[in-house]
Design a protein that fits this description.
The complex is a heterotrimer of chains A (285), B (612) and C (639). By secondary structure, chain A is of the alpha/beta class. Chain A folds into 2 domains: 164 residues, P-loop containing nucleotide triphosphate hydrolases (Rossmann fold), CATH 3.40.50; 66 residues, no CATH class. In chain A, 30% of the residues lie in helices and 30% in strands. Chain A has 9 helices and 13 strands. Chain B contains 21 helices and 12 strands. In chain B, the strands form 3 sheets. In chain B, strands 1-2-3-5-4 form a 5-stranded mixed beta sheet, with helices on one face. Chain B has a 4-stranded antiparallel beta sheet with strand order 9-8-11-12. A 3-stranded antiparallel beta sheet of chain B has the order 6-7-10, with no helix packed on it. Chain C is an alpha+beta fold and 639 residues long. Helices cover 56% and strands 13% of the residues of chain C. Chain C is built from 26 helices and 16 strands. The radius of gyration of chain C is 30 Å and the shape is elongated. Classes of the chains: A alpha/beta (285), B alpha+beta (612), C alpha+beta (639). Chains in contact: A-B, B-C.
Chain lengths: 285, 612, 639
């Protein structure tokens, strides 16, 4: 396998008695768009903060660009473009000045790249950041993150607070950038459609652990449902019954199998599920 | 370096305008201070402007800087933005520390330069001297900034911590040997900052640098602990509960400050030198060898009095030390009590005991009264109890030989001998004079003994003159009147007392005093006073007007508060005398007319008046 | 409305706790520390005391302002105001409920104060020892505190509505008012905390109606302005001010600019304080006015580095010839080592003093000083001060309340020995003896500077201090003065002692006894009084006070009890209270009535009188270069 850009093995983080991450394993290959999916409070932001070196883990291994790290050193952070969930910009700076400030920390900064991004996203460079809306701040954050042409882009719930149009535009831009430049992109979200739209691979986080990691197609094939079943739900080796509920007057039994071929042993016709339903069934308690 | 440069640039963008204003402000303030030094009549050197700037305005500057560079960053959460950038937290700290230090160090350098330039006109400055001042102020600036920087990281707790530090320093300074003004950074900017031209303050420099290092260490730890999450969480606004808790703690601290009386580590009072006669718990200073005999006799007598009193009143604790000092300038019957600071200092009194006319027994009784007051923490001087104190002291000193009740007989001309009058001891003192009040109390005590016997008196006095419980608990138990009525038959006592006074001769000539207020110019008032005798005024008598201004509320006026205008009575004449223009309309005054005869001093009249 | 009011009260409960503690906190400790039946109402309730400093007013004002801030801006900060606005209730009612709740807390504090002070006072039933509780005064104080609480709250309200732009202007106004008090005393009323300072005439509490009405009116305007701002444009004002404040001009005008202006005002106040209030101008004389040239020269001797005005070189040189001998004399008298070279600035031109000294620096005025003997004496006096600071390691200054008389007195004593001036010494001794005998002073009055200042002329520290130092030397040996200074600097010397305890400790450390010294001092003063009877008899007793008012001039009349030399001059000193510093004292010269030689009139401009109730001291001066004889301080009122 080509060298992974991001890899964690057994990553653990506690906040007091609360285990935010519990032996998390994930891997992101070069050029991938990786969707990191999880409920609110699952540990997505904690994972990203550890990757960025803002927080240190309590256990496990983190590798970035093939290098084991503990507290990401400066030279590696200079290769990462990061967009935080909430922007804490200096409100008194204009966008142009903010870019000028940020540029001093990235040796690979390219003004032309930033300006192109700013123009494409219609970011007013001479206005103070304090006057920007939430969506505009997010666009600015992305432009800043891309301005130094990083090989790895990490986005923490980038579309939170954006309206549907802005969100679609943002995601398309991410996808387009990834395809054009071959940049590896790691983004966290709780919105499954974003993953469907842009991700090559998806990792599902549940209670601090990896619930699933793989392609979107593999995820879709992993979980099937039986509708209007009568009697006891069938069982088969390698197949787990995730739920048996009545929804809108119809009984629905949802099954999960590591190997989709195992579904055949159930002996009942199975239907596909939308990705969102799969996600809900996998992480709902 | 590029990163540091970027951070510095950001700080300058953010605070540059203010820093320029601050520079202008420093110049303006320094100008005003220099002007103040130049025109101020008590200026020793023009460098005082620099000293004032360093002591007063530099800390203000530092607080403002700390707020801008540190508090604002965390309050606005922009440190999160910095954390996400490829730089080390330490680099952010170094930038802020360096910039703040540069500004403060620069400000004091500019201040010193200005002041020195002006001072050079007519003061002989030396490089050594200026270097000393420079080093002192730079180290002070460094220490100040280190502390303020760290305090900024404490976020919402910085102000309570400032207050706590202030209170602790005050407590330490006032309650211990620790001298804040000479310690570390405070010592660097003390008076010697601009006056010490030769010696380097190595101790203060070392202490200040140590404080700076500790503060910086703490600050760095705060900023880096838990990846900066501690500092971030401290930056959140105070919750209402926290504010209330701080307010309550502050109130209690202020109450404690008001209540706690720091003990000073000093040796208990005592006389020094060889001209002192000592007995157990007693010392008599006699100044000159010629007075030694008198001193020894007095010491023996007072020591015996104290021992008797201790047994008679059943005290567990011994009387505190009693010190008697000879004061030859005092009249034979003029005694003074001096207030001593410490609880262990005991009692200090003065008397002219070398005077041939000195009445040792009267003095001994007076000393015993004071000793009993101290032993009862002043409770024996409480008005309803005071007569018992005086009577007990007199009985212990005079024994069976009752002193001449002449002055009490004088009093009995004007008042009926009743217990109620004894409870009004202070009022009797004011109206008739301290000697009369003392005589009244003494005669009452002797009358009590003649009715009930000495053991009954002893039991009664022990109860009244017992060391009291603390605070309001001293008020518990029977009232003085109830104790008296339980100890004796009031009617029998009063009858015996009245009888003893009826038969006594007062030795005070019959006289009437007069007092009037006369208008002077405008609001000024004069007091015309006179004494008319039945017959010729005694040749050796003195008449005096006693007067004192009063406040709006009635309080005891001690003899030392009273001014005295004295005239031989024979010179007084029909017209009397005038105290001219001392008081004005609407003044409240105490006016009394005193007659001094061989029998003693009596007040013929005493009034509290509000002048029209 | 009731629900709103109760909700506001509930949200302010922490301030109720704080108010209770501040107003009634003494209830926690006093019953356990003091016997209440011996306490007076005046002793318990400090705000009753005449001329009490404004501490109570300040604490009360800060409390009221904090409550106002809690009631209004917090609601906006937390966003709950939007919830309130969404309710079916009129906005004015919300305002009224908040104001009512805040004032309830403030006035509850007033009530608590009265209740707890009265409750602690009732135990003392004696009508004499007392400060016996008086309903008229109690109720008047309550009314004053209620009104003051309203005024402070109204201002706090306006400040809170204007947010950070509000509190700074208010703070500035108060600072300016405080400075103005020093420079122009009749403007003291501008400081609202002065409203609560108790002033009495006889037993009646004096209400200054003018200031109360003025402050009340201003408070109503503040309340109305706050209401108008809060009702309509409060948020818009806040946003607008925020935008304006974000511009550079705005920052200058508001934020840091206001703070800088505030600090600048502090610097100005330091300047004004260093100058102090001005006395009336000195009358012109026939003597030519001497001025020091800006051009200076420097000279160096073995013990001094001297700077002097170039135009007074002859006078300076005549002095410089002798200064090393003066230094040697002082060194010998104090038993000191030679010490560092002293810096002497002879360009001094102060009208307040002849010279000053600190550590190794002296300033002595050559200008106008033609008397060589006096000049030497002054130089010696200041040299002694320099030695005092060094020998005592500046501890003498730390205990200034106990040592002021010794600092000046021993300096005079040594200076008279090193640079004798017989006539001046005699005059000083006479004034000291006259004051001592006439006012029945004791040494305890002298050694406590605070006690001395409360009743007597503080310049007595020179003349009486000189005699006390002589008594010290005669009792404890010639080296006693120097030894006492060194004893102050000894390791482990206790600090913060009361004056008597300080001297007991210091003299004990040198093997001497304070009582012995005081006895010698008493005897010395009696001897001086007897020896100088003729001089003392020439000093009159002065009786008098405020006689009336002629427009803007207050007439202070002094009536002499004897005829005096026509050359004698008179003056009156004025101050606001017994604890005023010397620099806060005004001096006004008097004129003798040509038709009544024993009557002296002092015409005092109302602008110079510090407050409506003040203190004055009548003085007579027989030698213009000597010390005055003064009566004790007495209270007076502006008619």
């Amino acid at each position: 396998m080509a060298d992974l850009l991001v890899e964690t093995r057994g990553l653990t983080k506690r906040y007091g008695k609360v285990r935010a991450l519990d032996s998390l394993d994930l891997s992101v290959g070069p050029g991938e768009v990786y969707g990191f999916l999880g409920r609110n409070g699952a540990g997505k932001s904690t994972t990203i903060r550890i990757l960025m070196g803002i927080t240190k883990p309590d256990g496990g291994v983190v590798r970035l660009f093939g290098e084991p790290v503990r507290g990401t050193p400066v030279h590696l952070r200079q290769k990462i473009g990061y967009v935080a969930q909430e922007q804490s910009f200096y409100e008194w700076m204009t966008a142009a000045r903010l870019a000028k400030f940020v540029s001093r920390f990235y040796p690979t900064w390219d003004d032309a790249t930033f300006l192109a991004q700013a123009k494409a996203q219609a970011i007013p460079l001479d206005r103070k950041v304090g006057t920007f809306s939430g969506g505009m701040k997010m666009k600015l954050a992305l432009a800043l993150a891309l301005g130094h042409r990083p090989p790895l882009l990490i986005l923490d719930e980038p579309s939170a607070g954006l309206d549907p149009v802005a969100r679609r535009e943002f995601l398309e831009r991410v996808r387009e950038d990834a395809e054009r430049t071959g940049r590896t992109t790691f983004f966290s979200t709780h919105l499954v459609d974003e993953v469907e739209l842009v991700a090559d691979r998806v990792g599902i986080l549940e209670d601090g652990r990896t619930r699933f990691e793989g392609t979107v197609e593999a995820l879709a094939a992993r979980v099937r449902q039986v509708v209007d079943l009568e009697g006891e739900p069938p069982i088969a080796p390698g197949v787990r019954l995730l739920s048996d509920r009545v929804f809108r007057g119809r009984r629905r039994c949802v099954y999960e199998a590591d190997d989709p071929a195992a579904f055949g042993a159930l002996g009942v016709p199975l239907d596909d599920l939308p990705l969102e339903e799969i996600f809900i069934e996998m992480v709902r308690r | 370096m590029r990163r540091l440069g970027g951070l510095l640039l950001k700080e300058l963008w953010q605070h540059g305008g203010v820093l320029l204003l601050l520079a202008a402000f420093v110049a303006a303030v320094q100008g005003i201070l220099l002007l103040g030094s130049a025109v101020g009549p008590r200026t020793i050197t023009m460098l005082e402007a620099h000293a004032t700037f360093t002591r007063v305005f530099l800390p203000l500057l530092g607080i403002a800087l700390g707020h801008r560079l540190v508090v604002r960053e965390y309050h606005a959460h922009t440190q999160r933005f910095l954390e996400a950038l490829p730089l080390y937290r330490g680099e952010v700290l170094v930038t802020k520390l360096g910039l703040g230090l540069f500004v403060l160090a620069g400000a004091v350098t500019v201040s010193l330069a200005f002041a020195a330039a002006i001072a050079l006109v007519k003061e002989p400055l030396t490089w050594h001297w200026l270097t000393l001042i420079f080093v002192r102020t730079q180290v002070f600036a460094l220490t100040l900034w280190s502390v303020l920087f760290t305090m900024g990281l404490l976020g919402r707790w910085r102000i309570p911590v400032y207050l706590a530090m202030g209170l602790v320093l005050v407590f330490l300074d006032q309650g211990t040997d620790f001298e804040v003004a000479r310690f570390g950074p405070f010592g660097l900017v003390s008076e010697r900052l601009i006056l010490e031209r030769h010696a380097a303050p190595w101790a203060e420099l070392g202490t200040s640098l140590a404080i700076a290092a500790i503060a910086l260490g703490l600050g760095v730890a705060l900023a880096l602990l838990d990846e900066g999450s501690v500092a971030e969480s401290l930056a959140k606004p105070m919750s209402r509960r926290e504010r209330v808790a701080v307010g309550v703690v502050l109130c209690f601290a202020l109450i404690a400050w008001d209540v706690v009386d720091p003990k000073h580590d000093k040796a208990p009072f005592d006389f020094e030198g060889d001209a002192v006669v000592r007995r157990e718990g007693l010392a008599v200073l006699y100044l000159d060898e010629a007075n030694r005999g008198d001193a020894e006799a007095l010491a023996d007598a007072i020591a015996a009095d104290l021992a008797r009193a201790h047994d008679a009143l059943g005290y567990e604790e011994p009387f505190g030390p009693v010190h008697v000092a000879l004061r030859t300038t005092l009249e034979a019957d003029g005694y003074e009590e001096v207030e001593l600071e410490g609880e262990d200092d005991g009692l200090l009194v003065r008397a002219g005991f070398s005077d041939p006319a000195f009445d040792a027994r009267a003095f001994r009784a007076w000393v015993l009264e004071r000793a009993i007051e101290r032993a009862t923490d002043g409770r024996a001087a409480f008005e309803p109890n005071a007569w018992v104190r005086t009577g007990a002291a007199a009985l212990l000193v005079y024994g069976d030989e009752a002193p001449d009740p002449g002055l009490a007989a004088f009093w009995a001309r004007h008042r009926r001998p009743r217990y109620a009058a004894l409870e009004r001891f202070w009022r009797t003192e004011e109206r008739f004079g301290p000697e009369v009040a003392s005589a009244v109390a003494t005669s009452a005590a002797f009358a009590f003994v003649s009715v009930e016997g000495e053991p009954a008196w002893r039991a009664f006095a022990s109860e009244v003159l017992a060391p009291p419980a603390p605070g309001v608990f001293a008020m518990a138990g029977p009232s003085p009147r109830e104790r008296f009525e339980a100890a004796t038959d009031a009617a029998a006592f009063e009858a015996r007392w009245a009888a003893s006074l009826r038969t006594a001769s007062s030795g005070v000539p019959r006289a009437t005093a007069s007092l009037s207020i006369e208008p002077e110019e405008g609001l000024l008032r004069s007091v015309r006073w006179g004494v008319r005798f039945r017959g010729a005024p005694p040749p050796d008598a003195f008449c005096a007007l006693l007067h004192a201004p009063l406040g709006p509320f009635d309080e005891v006026v001690t003899p030392s508060d009273l001014s005295r205008e004295e005239v031989p009575c024979a010179e007084l004449g029909e017209a009397g005398s005038r105290l001219v223009g001392r008081y004005s309309a609407a003044d409240r005054v105490l006016l009394a007319i005193e007659l001094e005869v061989p029998a003693g001093r009596v007040r013929l009249l005493a009034e509290r008046r509000e002048l029209d | 409305m009731r629900a709103l009011y109760l909700k506001e009260l509930r949200s302010l409960w922490p301030f109720l706790v704080l108010t209770s503690l501040l107003m009634s906190g003494d209830l926690i400790h006093r019953p356990f520390m003091e016997r209440l039946d011996e306490q007076t109402w005046e002793g318990i309730a400090s705000y009753l005391r005449a001329g009490e400093d404004g501490t109570f007013g300040w604490v009360f004002a800060i409390l009221a302002v904090c409550i106002a801030y809690a009631a209004f801006p917090r609601e906006h900060d937390e966003g709950t105001i939007r919830f309130l606005h969404s309710l079916p209730v009129r906005r004015p009612l919300i305002f009224v409920a908040k104001v009512a709740a805040g004032l309830t807390i403030v006035w509850t504090g007033v009530g608590l104060l009265l209740l707890t002070d009265t409750a602690q006072s009732v135990w003392n039933t004696s009508s004499f020892e007392g400060g016996h509780w008086r309903a008229d005064i109690a109720l008047t104080h309550v009314a004053m505190q209620v009104a003051f609480g309203f005024i402070a709250y109204a201002h706090g309200l306006l400040g809170s509505v204007l947010r950070r732009f509000g509190i700074l202007p208010y703070a500035l106004v108060l600072v300016v008012a405080s400075i103005l008090k020093d420079v122009f005393p009749p403007a003291a009323w501008i400081d609202p905390t002065e409203l609560l300072v108790a002033r009495y005439e006889g037993s009646h509490l004096v209400i200054a109606w003018g200031p109360w009405i003025a402050h009340g009116f201003v408070a109503l305007v503040a309340l109305a302005t706050a209401y108008a701002a809060w009702m309509g444009p409060a948020d818009r004002i806040g946003a607008g001010l925020g935008r304006a404040g974000a511009t550079l001009a705005g920052k200058l005008a508001f934020g840091c600019g206001t703070a800088l202006a505030g600090v600048g005002v502090l610097a100005l106040s330091a300047l004004v304080s260093s100058i102090g209030p001005s006395d009336e101008p000195i009358e012109p004389t026939d003597e030519p006015v001497e001025v020091a040239s800006i051009d200076t020269r420097q000279a160096r001797t073995a013990r001094y580095e001297v700077t002097y005005p170039a135009n007074l070189e002859a006078r300076a040189s005549a002095l410089i010839e002798h200064i090393d001998a003066i230094h040697a004399g002082v060194q010998r008298e104090l038993g000191a080592d030679v010490g560092p070279v002293l810096v002497a600035d002879l360009t001094e031109t102060s009208s307040e003093h002849l010279g000053i000294a600190s550590w190794t620096h002296l300033r002595v005025g050559l200008v106008g000083e033609r008397d060589v003997v006096r000049l030497h004496h002054t130089f010696a006096h200041e040299t002694v001060h320099a030695f005092q600071h060094r020998l005592s390691d500046l501890r003498q200054g730390d205990a200034e309340r106990a040592t002021h008389f010794f600092a000046e007195g021993s300096a005079e004593h040594v200076a008279f020995r090193v640079a004798p001036n017989g006539p001046a010494h005699r005059q000083a001794r006479a004034v000291a003896a006259a004051t001592w005998a006439r006012h029945r002073m004791s040494s305890d009055d002298l050694i406590d500077e605070r006690a001395l200042r409360r009743r007597f002329d503080t310049s007595l520290v020179y003349s009486l201090g000189d005699r006390w130092s002589a008594a010290l030397a005669s009792t404890c040996g010639d080296a006693a003065i120097g030894d006492a200074l060194r004893a102050m600097a000894r390791e482990g010397a206790p600090r913060d002692l009361a004056p008597r305890a300080f001297w007991e400790d210091t003299l004990r450390a040198i093997g001497c006894d304070l009582e012995s010294v005081d006895a010698a001092f008493d005897a010395l003063m009696d001897a001086d009084a007897e020896e100088l009877t003729d001089v003392i008899d020439g000093l009159p007793r002065l009786g008098g006070g405020v006689a009336g008012r002629d427009g803007a001039t207050v007439r202070v009349v002094a009536l002499l009890d004897r005829d005096v030399d026509p050359s004698m001059t008179f003056f009156v000193r004025l101050r606001s209270d017994p604890d005023s510093e010397d620099t806060e004292t005004i001096t006004v010269r008097g004129q003798r009535d040509p038709d009544a030689p024993r009557r002296v009139v002092h015409r005092v401009s109302r602008a110079l009188i510090p407050s409506s109730r003040f203190q004055l001291q009548l003085c007579a001066l027989d030698d213009p270069r000597g010390w005055p004889f003064c009566e004790t301080w007495q209270w007076a009122s502006v008619p």
